Amino acid sequence: MIYGKGEAFWQAERDLIIQGSQGALVIEGESGQLIRDGETRSLAMGSRRGLFARDTTMVLDHLIQGTSLYVAVSESVRALRVADAARRSAELGQTIEL
After folding, report:
1. pLDDT of res. 44
2. d(Cα 34, Cα 77) in Å, to the nearest integer?
3. Domain match, 54 and 36 both
4. Rounded to the nearest 5°, which phi and psi values hold at 18?
5. Which helix (H) or strand (E) holds 14?
6. In which region does residue 53 sit, left (phi positive, over 0), alpha (psi from -120 to 50) or beta (all else)?
7. Do 39 and 56 have their domain in common?
């Protein structure tokens, strides 16, 4: 996974490649592809402009007014566990089971 933004980076980058036993998900900048069974399908990525402000507003509304988030807290925790396993896997050079 590569993400770079801000003054320290000469070029903004957002690349993510997830490979599994049955295919892969490839996101390069503003385009995405799902590769499965030898077939490649383009994915609509949508705009990411203003996402930080929108996410911040949603979290504050949830905390103050009790409105729903677009993702369950348990799903966020699961995503963090997967990200941490990916980090540990890279550090150790081993597969990390969840």
Report:
1. 80
2. 24
3. no
4. -120, 120
5. strand 13-20
6. alpha
7. no
Q: Give the range of the structural domain holding residue 4, as residue numbers without chain letter.
A: 1-47
Give the model's pLDDT for residue 86.
Answer: 92
Return the SS3 of 17. strand
Same structural domain, 54 and 98: yes
Give the confidence band of 5 by pLDDT, cuts at 50, 70, 90: low
Tokens of 79: 């995503």
Is the domain of 69 the same as that of 82? yes
CB 61 within 8 A of CB 54: no
37-68 confidence digits (pLDDT tens)? 889 999 887 776 777 788 888 888 988 899 98
Say yes or no: 30 and 60 in one domain.
Answer: no
- Confirm whether pTM is higher than 0.70: no
